[in-house]
Design a protein that fits this description.
Strand order of the largest sheet: 35-38-39-40-41-42-43-44-45-46-47
Radius of gyration: 52 Å
Number of strands: 54
Shape: elongated
Strand content: 35-45%
Distance between the termini: 142 Å
Number of helices: 5
Helix content: 10-25%
Length: 841
């Protein structure tokens, strides 16, 4: 058996090489220092006894030899002397044992305290590391402050007051050298204290400033009784006087130093934790979703992430030292994906902005390698419908730089070098600014290598400007400016032919703009262009002399006819009360009965192209068509409808009800909203964009709206208003009062002027510019026209005893159609001819 000295209380924790003979000879006996001293003195005592016995044996041997009496007496004295020596040795050994016991005991206690402190230091570090590994990175109350792990309720002995025991699952020794479980106190610091953490809380209340200890490790000492207690801030740790307890507190600064970078609180800001290591953040499924890696290039650490989102309107910036020569570089190989996609929903914001301030660097580089049509290298969308927002804004301060440079380098597919889109009526699809005052820099430079692609493509979804320039617009010599989808000589538009400007209409031929001289128009004529070239148009044609009347009897007709036409007068629609709807696609030369159900139709309106129609039925519903009347769909409920009007695109509609309200629609009649108050509404008209509306009331007033019918303003006086018409922009208006005058306005209905009085006016129509007007009466069976916005009126047709009911006019005012009902139906269409039969003004 080998013998090795070791403190008995910590023997189980010492490593194997402290007792080197253990594995070689078997069991090892390890004794403390006090036991060794006792054994040493026992050995000395035994040696003294052995020495006395040996002396006695020697004395007995000498006694057997004859001596004189004098010598015998001396021998007896030697025996007692030796015996006394042995006794003195024993007494001395016992005294030395008593004298040495105190210091040796003290040395043993000092060694145990050192061991306890070392264990407590290790336990504190392990507790700090374990704190950051808790759910939520250790911040259980979400106040950006790490909470230490809670104390345990299980341990040997009684825990310190206000606290608990050191948890046994952090990897540290749970007991001190005297056999007691270490005490453990922790404090919850920050703005949220003991609010949402686990129950029971097992943490004390700390401070918002985190200026006290975060945790404390305690040992009860040799007496195994805690005289130290823990309390809420600001008391924290209270240690009794003369206590043998050992206390090791850790503040947030100590936690930072002790964590080795795993729990590093930023200097001056305890709410921010730092880490000086590479990172990998995994999802709950175990996949790495974010990482920081500096192993490839320590000077340029890479961020590994599949998706980056800026929160709380923060900005994400990428600079050239991270990505080479491009501020932001995006690449995609999948169809319909974007190399770079920027989205901005705030007014005056920027979806993607690239800034290149040096040499030929690129602010934003978007690239797509997809051969599929529709792939986009860079796409910017400003989705706000108000404000001067930009889908993409590029700025270059270099004299040779480019604000935005986009290259669609595929020779096939409808790919775009730059694609900009704005949904705001005042927004810009692409805005480029070359701010250098010198050099050939470009605000926007777009290039496409595909014959079917576009160097730049501009689209304003709100019918605003697709492309607008405040300065000159230049083109290279020999190039074309085409309209439509066909480019070059096969299309139509304008071109430069070796310095000669030529124009071509759709279906026509290229003709020099410097051809035959313009005609010399006479008084009361205006210069107009026709299919054959320039000509003069009379402003005051006489009946039968300035145009051609075409009369046609309609057997299927009925009472109360209503008529509408497309802007180019090619498509006509007529409805009757109690009859079917008839249409024409050749300006009234031929007519087709649609075979619709015979209803009490009272009014009809058309989009500019004649495709979208809307008609109303007296004591019935509203009906809409999207195929020029081939099929119809019933809308809204049964009402006493009187009139209807449409915007040029057929999207915004307005209809009136007799002794009811005005109803508006913004989705081509699918749904309707009641507006204004109950009145005897008679007629209604709309501007081409559907924003400005005007409606009249029988024995009431005129009402105008500038917000698509949401609100209305009363105008003029109460009269027997019958009908109303509007110019395309809603500025010039004309209204009829039965038995009174025609009234005109040039300021969107704010003020009105009486014209042509004393007629039983029933219907009126206007050209797009509001200059040409046509009105009908049922008294004189006459058709009246005006060429000066209603200032003067002339009878254009009279006779045949027909009672006119309605009238419609083309956008240019050169053609109109009037319908009547008297002994059958009669349709008259008028086409004005140019250059002959023009009366003086």
């Amino acid at each position: 058996m080998a013998l090795f000295v070791q403190n008995r209380s910590s023997m189980a924790e010492w490593p194997e090489n402290i007792c080197p003979l253990q594995s070689a000879i078997g069991d090892v006996v390890c004794l403390d220092l006090l036991t060794i001293v006792n054994l040493a003195f026992l050995a000395i005592f035994c040696l003294g006894v052995v020495a006395g016995v040996c002396a006695l044996l020697i004395w007995q041997t000498r006694k057997s030899v004859p001596h004189d009496k004098k010598k015998s007496g001396k021998s007896g004295s030697i025996f007692f002397t030796l015996f006394a020596g042995v006794v003195m040795v024993g007494v001395l050994a016992s005294s030395m044992n008593i004298i040495m016991r105190g210091p040796v005991t003290t040395m043993s206690r000092v060694t145990q305290r050192t061991i306890a402190e070392q264990n407590m230091l290790a336990s504190g570090k392990l507790a700090i590391m374990a704190a950051a590994n808790q759910p939520g990175s250790g911040d259980c109350d979400a106040d950006n402050m790490v909470e230490p792990i809670a104390w345990s309720l299980t341990g040997t002995g009684t825990p310190p007051g206000g606290g608990g025991f050191l948890p046994d699952d952090i990897g540290a020794s749970p007991t001190d050298p005297w056999g007691n479980t270490y005490g453990y106190c922790v404090w919850d610091h920050g703005t949220e204290i003991q609010t949402t953490c686990a129950t029971p809380l097992l943490r004390l209340k700390g401070a918002a400033a985190a200026n006290g200890p975060a945790l404390a490790i305690l040992s009860a000492g040799p007496d195994k009784i805690f005289q130290t207690s823990c309390a809420d801030a600001p008391a924290y740790v209270v240690k009794a006087a003369a206590s043998d307890d050992i206390v090791l507190p850790y503040g947030y600064a100590e936690a930072e130093a002790a964590s080795g970078g795993l729990w590093n609180l930023k200097s001056g800001d305890p709410t921010i934790a730092e880490i000086a290591k590479d990172l990998e953040v995994k999802s709950q499924g175990g996949a790495v979703v974010f990482g920081v890696d500096s192993t490839t290039d320590a000077g340029r650490p890479s961020i590994k992430v599949d998706y980056i989102k800026a929160l709380n309107n923060a900005k994400i910036e990428a600079v050239t030292r991270l990505l080479g020569s491009a501020g932001v570089e995006g690449a995609t190989t999948n169809a319909a994906n974007y190399g770079v996609f920027g989205s901005n929903t705030g007014a005056a914001g920027v979806a993607v902005k690239g800034l290149a301030s040096n040499g030929t660097a690129t602010g934003v580089l978007g690239q797509t390698s997809s051969t599929t049509s529709g792939a986009v290298g860079t796409k910017g969308e400003a989705l706000a419908t108000t404000g001067n927002t930009y889908g993409v804004s590029g700025l270059s301060k270099s004299s040779t730089g480019v604000g935005i440079y986009a290259l669609a380098d595929r020779a096939t597919g409808s790919n775009y070098g730059v694609y900009g889109q704005s949904q705001s009526t005042t927004g810009t699809g692409v805005y480029g600014y070359g701010s250098a005052a010198t050099g050939g820099n470009f605000g926007v430079f777009g290039r496409s290598n595909s014959a079917a692609g576009y160097g730049g493509y501009f689209d304003n979804a709100a019918n605003g400007w697709g492309l607008f320039s405040v300065d000159d617009v230049g083109q290279l010599a020999g190039t074309y400016l085409n309209w439509g989808t066909t480019r070059g000589a096969g299309g139509y538009g304008l071109r430069d032919n070796a310095g000669t400007m030529e124009a071509k209409n759709s279906g026509g031929t290229w003709t020099s703009l410097s051809g035959a001289p313009l005609p010399n128009c006479s008084e009361n004529e205006v210069l107009v262009t026709t299919g054959a070239g320039w000509d003069c148009l009379c402003l005051n044609p006489d009946s039968g002399e300035g145009g051609t009347w075409i009369g046609d009897d309609i057997d299927e007709g009925g009472p109360r006819p209503s008529v509408t036409m497309s802007a180019d007068d090619a498509k006509l629609v007529i409805t009757y009360e109690g009859a079917s709807i008839i249409t024409s696609t050749d300006s009234g030369v031929t007519w087709t009965d649609l075979g619709t159900t015979n209803r009490n139709w009272v009014d009809v309106a058309s989009s500019a192209d004649g495709t979208k129609l809307v008609a109303v039925v007296d004591n019935g519903q509203i009906y809409t068509s999207t195929n020029s009347g081939v099929s119809w769909t019933a809308r809204d409920g049964n009402r006493d409808w009187t009139a209807v009007a449409s915007s040029a695109d057929g999207t915004k509609l307005v209809a009136t009800v007799d002794y009811g309200q005005i109803y508006t629609s913004t989705n081509s009649g699918v749904s309707w909203t009641a507006r204004a108050s109950d009145q005897s509404w008679r007629g209604v008209a709309s501007s081409v964009d559907g924003t400005k509306l005007v409606a009249v009331v029988d024995n009431g007033r005129i009402y105008t709206s500038t917000n698509s019918g949401v609100s209305w303003t009363a105008r003029n006086s109460s009269r027997a208003w019958m009908d109303v018409a509007s110019s395309a922009d809603g500025t010039k208006l004309v209204a009829l009062a039965d038995g009174e005058s025609i009234y005109t306005s040039t300021d969107s209905g704010v003020s009105w002027t009486a014209r042509a009085s004393g007629k039983q006016w029933i219907a009126v129509a206007s050209s797009a510019d509001g200059t040409r007007l046509v009105a009908v009466t049922d008294e004189e069976e006459a058709i009246w026209t005006s060429m000066d916005s209603g200032v003067t009126w002339t009878v254009a047709y009279a006779g045949d005893d027909y009672s006119w009911e309605d009238v419609a006019m083309s956008a240019d005012g050169t053609r109109f159609i009037a319908v009547s009902h008297y002994d059958g139906s009669r349709i008259y269409t008028f086409e004005e001819s140019a250059g002959s039969g023009c009366l003086p003004p």
